[in-house]
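Possible race condition, two jobs.
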Amino acid sequence: MVVALAMPITAAAAIRHFQGRDRDAGTVSFNARIKPGHARRVAVGFTWKNLPVRCHEGWTDTDGSFTRSMRVRHRRFHGTGRMRTQVGQVAARVTGRFTSHGKKAHGTIRVHGDFSAGATKCDTGRDHWKAHRVAA
């Protein structure tokens, strides 16, 4: 007797790590959930480091990350976040787009606000970034 079992094949989502740079010396990194070749979600923790930012008092660098995930629709994603500081508020906005095969991404990031008593009226401007998928 031959018994055939029909088992549905489900495409498991894979987590892929991306890292890259902005135009200056800053870096970006994030994880994305990839399902059958397409990015579905950018995970919590889209991170930027050493982004140059111009403040009222002069130039400095900023680091930070998003505490929420971002949905990907038609290969595009975006997110905004705000954080209160002792002297005011800092806002960050990121936009991004994956290439057709999900191996690269590019976009913009802007961080602005009052970081501390020695760094007020700060703004990175609209900073362009590029990232590529790295092996796990």
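Job #2 (started ~2 s after job #1):
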Amino acid sequence: MWSRERIILLKRQILRKSQKLCNLSDIVLMHHERYDGKGFLLGKAEVEIPIGARIIAICDSIDAITSNRCYRKAHDFDFCYQEIENNLGKMYDPIVGQYVLDNWNEITSVVKR
């Protein structure tokens, strides 16, 4: 069984081999980091985390929260909004997160399609 860490590092290695996708490797590697530095893999914080990874972290959370999982039903978008709002500056970049919240209806209209 492969560990989560090994899978993330393998994805990074694959992307680094592509001239067109190599710039995405750090985004893939660090999108599970938390803004407060308590995240997964490297323990990076704030601006140490590439902006792309900070954006993908919120996108990934929206998808994870509002999707069915084998262990729970999907939460609604109101719950998701509250989770993001409650975790600004902790899990999520507060500027990126506030932008998402300020544009919530537009963003979720795309996701709901």
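The domain at 4-111 is CATH 1.10.3210.10 (Hypothetical protein af1432).
Logs attached separately.
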